[in-house]
Design goal:
With 134 residues, the chain is mainly α. The protein has helices at 4-99, 105-120, 125-133. 90% of the residues lie in helices and 0% in strands.
Length: 134
Amino acid sequence: MLPPPPEKKKTKAKHRRKQSQRIVIDLVKVGKVERLKRKLSESSTSRSKSLKVNTQLSDEVKKLKEKIKVLEEESLWEKRCSIIENNELLMIRLMSRSMRPNDDVEEILDYDEVIVDNLKTPPSKKDINAYVDT
């Protein structure tokens, strides 16, 4: 009769060891799961932060592109205006020279400067009406 009681004790000890091993394995699994959860939460917050930064940067880039387009359009407009003004000045100089071929070159240049000064000031309504009537 002596052998059966030690067997029960052995099974209890085996059971305890297996149970402690299961507890350790469960704790390890819980630890892994917690670490994974932390990593996911950190990565999701960093992703959301990076998404916010990326959207802000893309908005700033869009604004800068729009400013660049506006500036390019303005510079093109200014170039066109300057080309038109230069063409008008050349036409006026040619016309003034053809009208007075016997004058000295210096006098013609002085006369051209007066015409240029007149172009810088806007024409009066009388001048416009007189030009339209002709």
